[in-house]
Amino acid sequence: MTQTPRHAHRLLLSLLASGGLVVGGMLTAAPVGGGAPNLTSTYDAQARQRAEVVAERRPHTHPGTGSGGITPVADDGHGHVHDDPTTKNAISRSGEAAAAPDRTTPAQRAASRARVAMQRTQREPRLVGVPLRSKRQRVPESVYAMAGGCYSLGGQPLTFQATGLGSYLLYAPDRTFLAAAASGGAAWAAAPSPESDWTVRQTGRGRFTFTLADGRALRSGFATGTAEPFALRRTTGCTAFPEVETNVSGRPFGGVTGYQEVRGYVDPHVHGQTHEFLGGRVICSPPFHKYGAAAALVDCPDHQLADGRGAALEDVLSGNTPGSGHDPVGWPTFSYWPNPHSLTHQQVYYKWLERSWRAGLRIHTSLLTENHILCTVYPLKKNSCDDRDSVRLQAQDMRAMQDYIDAQYGGPGRGWYRIVTSPFEARKVINAGKLAVVMGMETSVPLGCNVQLGRPTCTEEQMLAELAEMKKLGVSQMELTNKFDNAFTGVAGDAGTIGPLTNSANFLSTGSFLRMQTCPTTYAPGTEDRLQSPNLGDLTGAGAQGTPPHDAAQQDAIFGAIWKLFGDLGVQPAPIYPKGPHCNQLGLSPLGQRLLSAMIDQKILFDPDHMSVAGRNAALDYLEQQQAAGRPVGVVSSHSWSTPDAYPRIYRLGGFVAPYAGDSTGFVEKWRQHLGWTDKRFYFGFGFGSDMNGFGAQGDPRGAGAPDPVTYPFTGLDGVTISQQRSGERVFDINTDGVAHYGMYADWVEDVQHVAGADGSALGADLGRGAEAYLQTWERSWGIAPDSCRNPALRKSVRAFTRAADTGLRARALMQRVGQPWQRLGRTFTYCAKKPGKQRVLMTVELSGKGKVTGVRRG
């Protein structure tokens, strides 16, 4: 595959050098002026400033010179970056598109809302409490069973803290660790280390040996040498291992069968392993560590320099002057991080994720991601910048995290974090009370297919081979781009001050600047990409209103002439763009269309977010054509990076939409707008795309004095009790801390229902149906037809339906024959058939506990 051209390499080297000098200077320069500010109060001050900004954006008035002495204040909504608070609450994360009028009619919106309201009145599936783990026996039955338990070993009560499958730290009541000493015996160490990480092997019932990685083994009297079996028995008197708490009580809920309708929240856009991306030195700390929170939740090495003033990137992303600094201490105080705007610190630690699962989250898409240009430019790194290498590494980490959580819960397959690769597997996992983790992908150069000087850097054969590898890796949801044009599609770009930067990076990646032109007049308002600068609309004076100034017009003309003469050589000056609205001239390429076709074949869900309007429109056109031709399609828009015109089309394709979560206040309005776009042929449920760990700002607190605040404890989905989350010494409150980490989405879901007022229960119901709606979209991408009750044209005759529902068929095979059920309650599936003189006859298929058809009846 073609490498980056030499001119781009030279520019990259220049950026690397300058980046190293800038960061190096920041790390070594002494602060000017007085001493360090009180770092423990830094975040509080910043939170107050952000609260003032949020309040300023809400509709209000100021004393002034307007009519009646009042001047209205309005936000122009212009521009967008991932952490821009002005757009995180918009229907689209483009200020321009967010202001677009809704093209559906009042009658269409009313009918849509009525359908959803009717759906909420349907009978609910029965849910049951599921034990967190199997009952602990007095004598451990396997090498995995001791995890988290208190056992007597050599007369000493010890907490067995799993470091992996079958390996443990042995934690004493005085908070020390049993470790091998250099003298040949054992000692009690103050901190965990490889000398205290014991691999356990079973030699008989209740008898186990303990061996270190270097071969030394535990013997009686806490000596070391040749392995000697120890008898283990449950006991009391242990001290709990220090760890982040979930603060949720009550059993997780599951279904009465593995194939029934599910309930639960869905977040289809999270970045669980981005501690590895951009070279592995940008997101501080991993989502788990075998030695627990104290080892995992520590700040980056560069952040710890100069009393926290080495965190140049964190300062810039937080809107501070480089060198401002922050308290770098994580566990156990967390005085600065995590917080909604600290984007370089880990926010999806596994125990925080566990809290959200315990509170009702049931589908979680963890996106493998990379940006090779930013990775190359950023001076600190330990990993490859190649998108494919990074994706493979992050997928490997997801599997390792699954194993680690399994180890905490008693062995392989027993943990709550389950990576799934089909909707049928996901449904079974959710009905078992666990979290279905979908592996997704969001990179700027997916499958190694860049575009250089207008030419793709991969062949169709290479693309298909890479896609097959991703499918084998476990990828089930995929975007075609993120930040740059590539061989498949043009990108939407970024607006505001970040726009020129990503445009320059696009040049480094592709050899070309974004090809933005004024959108066609046939496009509806808001159907546009991100406004680029400089553009003729930015200019003042007569040139901005009428004929462009000579220099600007000339430069734009020269750019066009060079393009015509020399093609995409990557040597043209940065253009001055025409007046907006802007649309990228690069749409879906023939190779991109071939990729979509291959994704249909591979049953990978397509996410159109980040594509140019031209690319997304062409992609949706193609999928509509393929669906009409009988091919199954699956579309998920995961975090508000599509324009509003696309959402009704996605719903008409049977797709699933989850807007960017953002603030609870903004999310409620997004939900209300989406209620008017649903399609009567498909089940409706709603989700939220957190974009956490993906440089997406999280929800700000409404404030302790806000109307109807969340009060603790509160009752979550299916009756669990949710208290304030405690991490070490820090206690979090959604009212004052906002969505500081992923565990706070349990509280955020409660908060959005408070914000919705009288509509709160309806919003809660739609969010609770989100997991089912996502699964149904995914099932249809696997070739399962929509249900025949909502789709009368799909109804079979009563006789044909009865013949098709053969006794002994499994649930999946039944759906392949007769489509999705209208309802799936316990051991029954409900369908619609027809007979002469009656176009709607309810049919009930009865199934066994294992999901095999046992009978069919009318009604």
TrEMBL record:
Comp. bias (Basic and acidic residues): 75-86
Disordered as annotated region, ranges: 55-128, 523-551
Domain of life: Bacteria
Gene3D superfamilies per record: Metal-dependent hydrolases (3.20.20.140)
Name of the protein described by the UniProt record: Peptidase
Species of origin: Nocardioides glacieisoli
